[in-house]
Amino acid sequence: MGCTEVQTTKVRTFTIIGADREPEMFRTAELGRTVTKEAYHEAVPVLRAGLLAAQQQLRSASFPVIIVFGGVDKGGKIETINLLNEWLDPRWIVTRA
Question: Model pTM greater than 0.85?
Fold first, then answer.
């Protein structure tokens, strides 16, 4: 799985990073960064397609993929998990609380 650039209808280009990239165990969010609603809605179909493609490729992997969410209460964990459950193919995910 490589790096794929997708040109959207406007000037914005979104890059979907594949498995050829160096793994980072714990990524941190940069605080203070914002995305306009227009840019978000434009990026959603591209990002969702990339997420579904990654999920299908990981189905044939020889290892399980576990995603752990942690943080303070009311920090948006549930909303993020629900969004992933909505975007991913439900036949291939298990969610535990």
Answer: no
